[in-house]
Write a structure and sequence with these properties.
The protein is of the alpha+beta class. It has one domain. The chain has three helices and 13 strands; from the N terminus they run H-E-E-E-E-E-H-H-E-E-E-E-E-E-E-E. The strands form three sheets. Strands 5-6-7-10-3-2-12 form a seven-stranded antiparallel sheet, with no helix packed on it. The longest helix is centred in the N-terminal third of the chain and has 22 residues, at about 1-25. It is elongated, with a radius of gyration of 19 Å.
Length: about 230
Amino acid sequence: MIILCLSLIFIISVWTIWLRYFYFFRAASYPESFKEGIVFSPAEGIVAYNKPLQKRKDILICKSDDFNGKRLFKIEQFLKEENYYQVGIFMTKYDNHHVCSSLQSKIQRIVCIGRNNDSPMMKFTDEFLSIFGISFFNWINRAESYIHYNQQYVIEYENGVLVVITMDKYVNKFDFEIKNDSENPYELGFVHRGSQTDIFIPESVYKSTEVVVGKRLSYKDIVFKLKESK
């Protein structure tokens, strides 16, 4: 019995180390080249929402539509047009946490906004049980409330498209490098904890989107199609 328990502890420890220090930092597999008028997914994860045309003044970063009437982060200063389409991608702890350049347009700037909250996103019991593969049913619901406080990075492209990354409560760390390469996809940076990535498409360049809520996206999945440039 003791040998069995020690063996189990050893296996779980090895699996946890592999998951946290090797699998977590695995390389991203993104398209070899861009396609004209296509926006690939900049992140891996689950589609949290797919919002149709909405006015600039109504756009906010959040997973839920209501948080006690409080909205901490607004990005009006980065929204140059009146109307936008929005898709939110929730990156789980098992997804690849690289963020990739996903469309054929140069990056104008990357801006960091916001600060951390003092409350934990995940309870210790939930995080401990997750090591053993036990589901923590209320984690995403709790995460919705903290998403309003976390640090964010806004990636602004020349064609008006915005990609906004919302950091995790504990680790507000995003390593990135602006390469200004609009010809080929590349790894833009790495998010060091679970987060959410939102994509905003101006009405002037929007053509269509085919993603649905609940779908898991990879870097090779198409999120938006854009109008042909004149």
